[in-house]
Amino acid sequence: MIKKRQVKEIFNKSVDHHAHRGDIMRLEVLIEYGGIYLDSDVLTLRSFDPLLNLNDVIMAHQDDGIKVCNAVILAKKDATFLKRLYDAYQSFNENCWDCHSVKLPGQLASIYPNDITVLPTNAFFRPSWNEKAALYASNNYDFTPNYACHLWNKKNNHDHLSRLTPELALNANNTFGRMLRHAIGNATLLKLKEFFNS
């Protein structure tokens, strides 16, 4: 864990929402140290090793092939693309929810394509936030192309993630349950179930 400043403003603009503060903090840490950033609701499904040397920055499209989501970022230290994104916070507007987290990275990627590799949506963001049924109501989504799955906690927490238990992960007959068993393993889930039931 890297202790960083508490973000309250950027370029003399107030930053009040914790999500926007997190957007800025991840950029500051990745620019300074490099590494892999994952939102806390991202489930990794396979190794990122094949991605590590594709470019200085690796991100993925969200939904439409234009937006590029910052919930998963692989970056080398001092990456030019992330510095450009950080500098673009000079136009930060607290009232535009996803301008600097999703829209602006997509715009910058189209202007500076050599500074970033943008993967297809299914690398990290499928099923998408609006495809909840593919994750929780059915069991036929093929996640083999996914390196990870963003679980969209903001959209799915009340219905699904807040009720998650090892027993549910072991028995859920849906894509989400299958992903959890794949990522965590049945043996680990059984140990967790025993631990929470003791």
UniProtKB/TrEMBL annotation:
SUPFAM superfamilies: Nucleotide-diphospho-sugar transferases. Gene3D superfamilies: 3.90.550.20. It holds the Pfam family Gly_transf_sug. This is Uncharacterized protein. It comes from Rotaria sordida.
